[in-house]
Design brief:
There is one protein chain. The chain is α+β, with helices and mostly antiparallel strands. The strands form 2 sheets. Strands 3-6-5-4 form a 4-stranded mixed sheet, with helices on one face. A hairpin with a 4-residue loop joins strand 1 and strand 2. The radius of gyration is 14 Å and the shape is globular.
């Protein structure tokens, strides 16, 4: 039985993750060995992995989807920090409010809240 799934993203400069994942998204540093840095929190979540031909409403398939409590707050912080928004904040017909942003490593991130 699968207990957990961990995403590994190649990065030349691990410190670039700090602002995006720690300061804006509020994740804690769970592990830092110098060559790998893991962010997370104490939330319990179901194990999930998705496969898609498109990202919904004919968008590009995002590399990661991150659910947050207040998507509007995160959206405003990302814009203020200068991160490029690739899909504007939208209420989707399947019950989520979301936007797409590129992280410091060029990964397309779907940030969402369930409505």
């Amino acid at each position: 039985m699968v207990k957990r799934i961990v995403v590994n993203i190649r990065a030349e400069d691990l410190s670039k993750a700090d602002h995006f994942y720690q300061e804006i998204l509020g994740l804690d540093v769970l592990m830092d060995h110098g060559w790998i840095k893991t962010f997370g929190n104490d939330e319990e979540a179901r194990v999930q992995v998705s496969f898609a031909v498109q990202g919904g409403n004919d968008t590009e398939v995002p590399d990661l989807s991150i659910e947050v409590d207040q998507v509007e707050d995160v959206y405003n912080k990302m814009k203020t920090a200068g991160f490029e928004i690739f899909y504007e904040l939208t209420d989707e017909e399947w019950g989520v409010r979301r936007f797409f942003v590129k992280d410091p490593f060029g990964k397309l991130i779907n940030i969402l809240s369930h409505q």
